[in-house]
Design a protein that fits this description.
2 copies of one chain form a homodimer. Chain A is of the alpha/beta class. The first copy, chain A, is 50% helix and 12% strand. In chain A, helix 6 packs across helix 8, helix 6 crosses helix 9 and helix 11 packs across helix 12. The first copy, chain A, is elongated. Chain A starts with 10 loop residues before the first helix and ends in a 5-residue tail after the last strand. The relative contact order of chain A is 0.11.
Chain lengths: 317, 317
Amino acid sequence: MCDKLPKNFNDEAAVFAKENGGLIGLSGGRDSVALLLMLKQVLKFPHLAACHVNHCIRGTEADADEQFCADLCKRLDVPFFCKRVDVPALAEQTGMSLEEAARAARYQAFAENQSGCFIVLAHHADDQAETVLFNMARGATGPRGMRAIDTKRGILRPLLNVTRREITDWLVARGETWRDDSTNAIADVTRNRLRHEVLPLLNDALGRDVTPTLCRAASLFHETHDALSEAIHALPTLDPQGRLYLPFVLQQSTALRKAIIHDYLRSRGVPNLSEATVLAVDAILPPGAEHSRICLPGGILAIRHHKRLELQWPEGR
Amino acid sequence: MCDKLPKNFNDEAAVFAKENGGLIGLSGGRDSVALLLMLKQVLKFPHLAACHVNHCIRGTEADADEQFCADLCKRLDVPFFCKRVDVPALAEQTGMSLEEAARAARYQAFAENQSGCFIVLAHHADDQAETVLFNMARGATGPRGMRAIDTKRGILRPLLNVTRREITDWLVARGETWRDDSTNAIADVTRNRLRHEVLPLLNDALGRDVTPTLCRAASLFHETHDALSEAIHALPTLDPQGRLYLPFVLQQSTALRKAIIHDYLRSRGVPNLSEATVLAVDAILPPGAEHSRICLPGGILAIRHHKRLELQWPEGR
């Protein structure tokens, strides 16, 4: 049996799961089955468990998915958690699409069964490319994608740069099977069209597979933003009381000033941050500006006072 | 006659041309005709000239384009420069595509007729969206697009956030005409497919026009990179001799360290910079690293020496 992992498998992400324990989101589909086998059989991680969510969407098929996952975990000697969620009812109650409701139910189930360990998800390069294109096109701030190592949310994605084809080949080479899991049937219309129409057309127009380049754009996007945030924290933007120190901020170019303001508001927890909010705050910073205070989302006040900018929360917070 | 400019016309870019003079690239197509009318008739800029390049691609049509531009400039009292370039021959000689050769010929002609003033180009939002998608898909580092104000290259693009439709409506409302200029016939296959197939499909899948969101992604991309570069320059990354000061650099995270190294190598003129080069340099920085020097593109040596990194050019440069 070939014990080689696909070449773009993210060892660094996997190591986090090895050291801290990992709870694998197991749908029974090819991606999560492959991920479980890689971590358990190839890397022999000692602290692994799997969590399956039965979405109650296509009755007998969903039950067969659940049974498949239970059997696989038994064979591999991996603790198996299962949760049933009536996703159609949840979607109805909340007004979410079936896909959104299913995702919410899964993350909820993972959170319930996770304590200190990482959640390990089987998102792969094709998922990432689709997400990048989706986010770009619907107006995110850039090619934002998923992170392979998301320590803030406790999520790891070791397959994020491995393509669907590589995963399939890997499973076939080992003689493993998987289920065409029932959640595929509820992918929303836009994502389905991106996957089955736009990305193939883009590949055809460019004469190459654009998946790796879209994945790379996402990882560079996150890296650039991380670097910028870290660089800003290394600059003297704040006074000892943690207020924005304007004599320094006002010396910078518009681009850096906007980044500093954005970072300051975000780190202080201002909700629904938009570029318009950042520009509105920027406008009150100069000593001669018409206004010296402005109301932000959440009823937070931004106030310029003695060469400082500070935030004031509404009463009762 | 309506003297209102389209709402996303970039005043800031236009002002550069007003103050420093502008040479408009005039093809006779709708975009450049509109741009010339906006700057001359609406904004009444005093120092304007136009430059037309006859690409000698479709004989009589190209000649009619040239005549149209000459007549328009005469009517508007704008100095008119014209240059004939045998683009098919240039493409043949250089191995460039017709489109690449035409672009090279145009920029060459602009440069010849420009002295201290800005080149003002009529690229619009649809061009930008196409460029962003093209760059993303072919593996640029992100949604890199054109800049509305490119002071390094002396280029201004006041229409960069105005759509083709807004430009057409503007011209029609003023009763102006234009030529379907002959260079449209030589757009390369990939760009044509992005324009006529991929972008319309993307719009349809998302149920909205993705042009503004792709344009916004590009402007945020450039702004983020500008802010990062400026922030890095404000950090103590260099010693007084301009060498990379490693005790500071090595304290930073991988993301910021890579950005610092990239910025250092780029600002020193290392050619063909890639992520691989940045990572290779990063690997020699730690005091205990196996190697303390590495050869970069262009035969440049990167050498770690006494807590500093410096570059050594090959003899004769």
